[in-house]
């Protein structure tokens, strides 16, 4: 059983590693079909006995190689590519050919391959998705399917789905509206749920909802794979989403986690608010980002000193990420100090495209910005805001590169012994400043983290290792925790539990190197601990349905995790 109490048909979890499995597709897969089935195909790793039993003689060269040797060969090939997009295409081809080998590569070489299957390379892949499109991955639901969404869901071959990642392609990373080509994002996200969090591949479903696009170049592109019309909005849009959410619950039940991904601000907040009461929903851009940044801050305080409430926070960017992080900081502060959350919000200031968000602007603000409009005279620029508010923590979620200028960073260093600077916008070209700039302009005193990876920086003989505030630290473990506890709703306290669990994983050795996030190499161990903490909180809040509660949640989480080692076929 394992896998959060769902039968393990394909032998994907650690708990079933030693059992013999039958390679079913609709009947027992054998011969040519077995080699064409990515879930069961092992390439040249089929044993002599398996080749006889499954009619593979002659369909493969006579050599028998181990999975480790296959991995070595493929990594060698990948490293020979100079263009990141070629690596991405090679990885996607592998996923469609041999699923276990794809995950073996990703798990064993996570730091090297994460930027290939996810940000920054996935952004370029989405921009060119129409041209590199080979085989459909995931499920496409468009306006043409209105009234038939349940039937469309039933076309997906897997029945027991545990995690769905869905996008409408309107705000892909910092790249804007990519319409139907945003499918690269749910596909990439779910491969990380499996590789980093151990959620079974067969239980993951990537979905793109195509309601059109406002991107002129796509509308005029002969290779565009989506609907060639302007985006549906208002009632038409919300009716389609309503039908989708209802169909998901009807087809997969109450306990399927639906992660909203890369929706535009105005829809993201509305959808999360609307469905969080009736469905198990999570928005990684709002909640996942907030959770991982909060973990970074909790860890950074061990370097800088003081509690969350002792610091003043200034954000550049007041969209999904900025307001999501700001709200979670206020929530954790309120929990630590028992001060009402409204008072805690007063420690957090936001700057948007029109300047500092202040009380006098309240009427014209979008609803999600209003709680952070405090009493202050209007301030137009970030530099003036920094000089006036004197924050100890500066966080960039603007999506605009080079906005933390030398003057801004030097101002931070002028009145802080150890300024905390997080430049979180993706991809690298959109980062508010680089690691090198942050360390050089603060003369090595900054505690720095970024959204995209930066190399270590040498400054005056000392090496500084920048932390990467990557959502991939949180959402895979969070998803696993939700799945193994059978949670039926996501509660903010579960996000706080995930942040605390991640911050606990940063060792003294990491701090000594200037790291405020643990290295990605032991991400599966970290994910198991996050899953255990999240599951424990779900049980505590009475939201977990998988009873009785396992005694050792970390052990249980580990036993439920997918392992990519080849299984022996009978």
Question: Describe it for me?
Answer:
Keywords: Metal-binding, NADP, Oxidoreductase. Belongs to the malic enzymes family. (S)-malate binds at residues 171, 426, 470. Pathway: Photosynthesis; C4 acid pathway. The structure is a single chain. By secondary structure, the protein is of the alpha/beta class. It has 4 domains: 31-97, Up-down Bundle (Hemocyanin, N-terminal domain), CATH 1.20.1370; 120-283, Rossmann fold; 288-469, NAD(P)-binding Rossmann-like Domain (Rossmann fold), CATH 3.40.50.720; 472-503 and 521-560, no CATH class. The chain contains 24 helices and 14 strands. The chain has helices at 31-35, 48-53, 67-80, 84-97, 99-108, 110-117, 121-127, 129-132, 149-154, 184-197, 216-219, 234-252, 265-275, 284-304, 320-337, 341-345, 382-389, 406-414, 435-441, 475-485, 492-504, 508-512, 523-540, 553-560; strands spanning 139-142, 163-167, 204-210, 257-260, 281-283, 313-316, 348-352, 355-356, 393-396, 420-423, 447-450, 457-459, 462-464, 467-468. Helix 19 (435-441) links the parallel strand 10 and strand 11. Helix 14 (284-304) packs across helix 15 and helix 23 crosses helix 24.
């Amino acid at each position: 059983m394992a896998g959060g109490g769902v039968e393990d048909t394909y032998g994907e979890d650690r708990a079933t590693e030693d059992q013999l499995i039958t390679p079913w597709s609709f009947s027992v897969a054998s011969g040519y079909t077995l080699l064409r089935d990515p879930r069961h195909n092992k390439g040249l790793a089929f044993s002599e006995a398996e080749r006889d039993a499954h009619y593979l003689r002659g369909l493969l060269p006579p050599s028998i190689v181990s999975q480790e040797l296959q991995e070595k060969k493929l990594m060698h090939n990948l490293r020979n590519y100079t263009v990141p997009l070629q690596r991405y295409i090679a990885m996607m081809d592998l996923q469609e050919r041999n699923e276990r080998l794809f995950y073996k590569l990703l798990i064993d070489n996570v730091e090297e391959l994460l930027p290939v299957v996810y940000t920054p390379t996935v952004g370029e892949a989405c921009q060119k998705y129409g041209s590199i499109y080979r085989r459909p991955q995931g499920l496409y639901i468009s306006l043409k399917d209105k009234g038939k969404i349940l039937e469309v869901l039933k076309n997906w071959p897997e029945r027991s789905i545990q995690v769905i990642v869905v996008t409408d392609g309107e705000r892909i990373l910092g790249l804007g509206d990519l319409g139907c080509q945003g499918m690269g994002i749910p596909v990439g996200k779910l491969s990380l749920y499996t590789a980093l969090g151990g959620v079974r591949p067969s239980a993951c479903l990537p979905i793109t909802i195509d309601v059109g696009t406002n991107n002129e170049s796509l509308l005029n592109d002969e290779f565009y794979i989506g609907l060639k019309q302007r985006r549906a909005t208002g009632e038409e849009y919300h009716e389609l989403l309503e039908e989708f959410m209802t169909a998901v619950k009807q087809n997969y039940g109450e306990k399927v986690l639906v992660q909203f991904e890369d929706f535009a601000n105005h829809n993201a907040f509305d959808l999360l608010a609307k469905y969080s009461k009736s469905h198990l929903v999570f928005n990684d851009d709002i909640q996942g980002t907030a959770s991982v940044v909060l973990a970074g801050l909790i860890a950074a305080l061990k370097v800088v000193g003081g509690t969350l409430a002792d610091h003043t926070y200034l954000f550049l960017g007041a969209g999904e990420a900025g307001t999501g992080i700001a709200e979670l900081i206020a929530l954790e502060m309120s929990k630590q100090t028992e001060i009402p959350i409204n008072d805690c919000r007063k420690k957090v200031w936001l700057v948007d495209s029109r300047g500092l968000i202040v009380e006098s602007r309240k009427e014209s603000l979008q609803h999600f910005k209003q709680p952070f409009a405090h009493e202050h005279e209007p301030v137009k620029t970030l530099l003036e805001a920094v000089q006036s508010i004197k924050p100890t923590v500066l966080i960039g979620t603007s999506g605009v590169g080079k906005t933390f200028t030398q003057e801004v960073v030097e101002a931070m260093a002028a009145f802080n012994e150890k300024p905390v600077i997080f430049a979180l916008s993706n991809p690298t070209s959109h980062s508010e400043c680089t690691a090198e700039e942050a360390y050089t302009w603060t003369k090595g005193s900054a505690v720095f983290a970024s959204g995209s990876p930066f190399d270590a920086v040498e400054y005056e003989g000392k090496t500084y290792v920048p932390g990467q505030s990557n959502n991939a630290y949180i959402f895979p473990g969070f998803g696993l925790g939700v799945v193994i506890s059978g949670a039926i709703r996501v509660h903010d306290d579960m996000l706080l539990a995930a942040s605390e669990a991640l911050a606990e994983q940063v060792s003294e050795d990491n701090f000594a190197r200037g790291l405020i996030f643990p290295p990605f190499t032991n991400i599966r161990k970290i994910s198991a601990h996050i899953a255990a903490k999240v599951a424990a909180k779900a049980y505590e809040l009475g939201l977990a349905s998988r009873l009785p509660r396992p005694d050792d949640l970390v052990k249980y989480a580990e036993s439920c995790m997918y392992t990519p080692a080849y299984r022996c076929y009978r």
